[in-house]
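In line with agreed milestones, the collection of sequences with tokenised folds has grown. One record among many is set out beneath this paragraph:
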Amino acid sequence: MLPIIGCLKKETHMNKKNSLIAAFVLLAFVQLYVPAKMILNQEDVLNKGREFKFKTAPIDPNDPFRGKYITLRFDANEVVVANTAEWTYNESIFVAISEDAEGYVQLDSLMKKAPAGTHNYVKARIDYIRGDDSYEIGIEFPFERYYMEESKAYDAELAYAESQVDSTQVAYALVAIKDGEAALKDVLINEESIREIVERRLKEK
């Protein structure tokens, strides 16, 4: 009888050990799968998405430089609505977009669900709600940070800041959009990539 009990205990111990190993493998798979899927989705948007130009606006001078990315602000960042009561701060929404006469993005309307029959929309969040004389919803886009190598980010920040105070320069973010998902491709100043501008400035130092 005792050998049988010993065998049962050993088998139970092995089952627990196998279960722990299986749980560990599953956890490791999930931890690898999620970021890998996000990267693949971003690559798909970058490669297959339609490109839109989001004209930039001056940044807040009180917004500190963080050393790894440029903080972007956009000219088109508000949508007028009939009633603000149905919207809440930080709510996930869909923004229908189109292009103005110069080819830059303009925001047309807000929706709580992805629109049917069009691909010209982007997922975003509500940044603020203003409802005094006009009902305006501020939009927070998922591509408001442009990351660069830390050794080059400061020069990029300076170039971008200069473009925002010089009325002769035009800066915009080139964004790929597919089925509402967005991926920031580049930031251009006078049709030149900010990366190329930084490379040139570093060589001139």
